[in-house]
């Protein structure tokens, strides 16, 4: 089937993009490459299957920025190829071009997000120039996801214990702002490890080992101590914010957790009402009695409770009735999905409407584009968090960032056609 060559705008491709086409049909691959050249692409690589694409990617330096891939291919199909790319060191952004049914495409979109890939768009064959250009324009080099090299991905319990003794773990803070006004309302504290040799490492390098070797409670204590101390520091200097901290499922089964957290926060001179404890839906599926006892006691003492990653666990609606939460965080996969697919918008709108009826504050995670922001504002989401606003930052840079944050200028700076 020939690829569409409509006369829509064919200029404006971001300069310097390195592209890879993965398509088993020779004619369609050649026509797609020609279309990309007419759009202004200068560096285009081609592969006829997933195997050859991976081999080619291993040799390219610098690596490709965007992979444009079919799904239904012989040998290694598009699903396996996406998984293999998601497990690699360099993770390019992805555009899917396929003639498969929409429900299957939606499933692959969710799968790609689970593997950590930035999926720019899904386009039905044959792709029109306008659709392809729109997808490629969504690419942002500063949001490129790069994994740590394999030798840095796993650390032993001994390494982590030494790091704990050396006080190498600390919170980085990502802001949360109101969608309606742009007002800064809080930060989420995210664990980081300042490794003396490998620099700042994200949780994927250490969380699994900490949980499996019984070290997660110690990390929770460090995060809560430091996050609450910084919250008190900022509030004493006039910054009206709250700080969120993630609590591990394993920690919640300890009946002594609540008293320990209360004491730690008060020791920093902070009222617990300014701390939000984020828990996942699945937390209440193990040791139900103990977990609910802890959560009820924490809520009674003033902590706010937030259900994190809503929609990714099981029996989501049942958990909402069990936990005395005041906040619901919509997982990033639903936010990104809604910007591209009608089914995603239905799910997002329904979740927000349900939360509103339950008097829950809603926070959307992974807000990365003005389109995400506009859609969330239209559907009445309360707060947003994501790269569009700011990346997680070191604590000693927060005050300067907050001082420079101008809600009015921020809202004015959004594309006029996207503002309500």
From TrEMBL:
Coiled coil: none annotated. InterPro entries: CheY-like_superfamily, Cyclic-di-GMP_PDE-like, EAL_dom, EAL_sf, Sig_transdc_resp-reg_receiver. The keyword Phosphoprotein applies. PROSITE patterns: EAL, RESPONSE_REGULATORY. The keyword Membrane does not apply. Signal peptide: none annotated. The modification 4-aspartylphosphate is found at residue 70. Keywords: Phosphoprotein. Residues 153-406 form the EAL domain. Residues 18-140 form the Response regulatory domain. Pfam families: EAL, Response_reg. SUPFAM superfamilies: CheY-like (SSF52172), EAL domain-like (SSF141868). This is EAL domain-containing response regulator.
């Amino acid at each position: 089937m020939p690829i569409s060559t409509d006369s829509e705008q064919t200029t404006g491709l971001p300069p310097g993009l390195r592209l890879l086409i993965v398509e088993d049909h020779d004619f369609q691959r050649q026509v797609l490459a020609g279309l990309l050249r007419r759009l202004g692409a200068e560096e285009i690589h081609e592969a006829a299957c997933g195997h050859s694409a991976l081999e080619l990617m291993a040799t390219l330096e610098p690596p490709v920025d965007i992979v444009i891939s079919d799904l239904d291919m012989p040998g290694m199909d598009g699903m396996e190829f996406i998984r293999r790319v998601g497990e690699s060191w360099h993770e390019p952004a992805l555009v899917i071009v396929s003639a498969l049914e929409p429900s299957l495409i939606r499933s692959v979109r969710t799968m790609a997000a689970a593997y950590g890939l930035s999926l720019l768009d899904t386009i039905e064959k044959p792709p029109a120039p306008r659709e392809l250009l729109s997808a490629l324009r969504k690419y942002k080099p500063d949001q490129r996801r790069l994994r740590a090299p394999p030798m840095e991905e796993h650390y032993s319990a001994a390494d982590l214990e030494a790091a704990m003794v050396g006080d190498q773990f600390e919170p980085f803070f990502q802001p949360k702002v109101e969608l309606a006004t742009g007002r800064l309302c809080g930060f989420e504290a995210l664990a980081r490890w300042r490794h003396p040799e490998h620099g700042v490492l994200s949780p994927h390098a250490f969380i699994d080992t900490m949980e499996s070797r019984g070290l997660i409670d110690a990390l929770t204590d460090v995060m809560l101590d430091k996050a609450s101390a910084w919250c008190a520091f900022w509030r004493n200097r006039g910054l009206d914010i709250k700080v969120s901290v993630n609590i591990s499922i394993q920690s919640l089964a300890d009946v002594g957790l609540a008293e320990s957290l209360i004491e730690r926060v008060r020791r920093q001179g902070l009222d617990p009402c300014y701390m939000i404890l984020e828990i996942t839906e699945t937390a209440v599926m193990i040791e139900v009695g103990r977990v609910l006892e802890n959560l009820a006691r924490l809520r009674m003492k003033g902590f706010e409770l937030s259900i994190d990653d809503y929609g990714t666990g099981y029996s989501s609606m049942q958990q909402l009735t069990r936990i005395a939460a005041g906040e619901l965080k919509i997982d990033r996969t639903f936010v990104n999905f809604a910007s591209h697919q009608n089914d995603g918008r239905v799910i997002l709108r329904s979740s927000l409407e349900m939360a509103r009826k339950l008097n829950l504050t809603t926070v959307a995670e992974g807000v990365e584009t003005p389109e995400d922001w506009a859609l969330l504002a239209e559907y009445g989401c309360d707060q947003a968090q994501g790269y569009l606003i700011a990346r997680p930052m070191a604590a000693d840079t927060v005050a300067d960032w907050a001082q420079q944050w101008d809600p009015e200028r921020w809202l004015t700076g959004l594309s006029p056609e996207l503002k309500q």
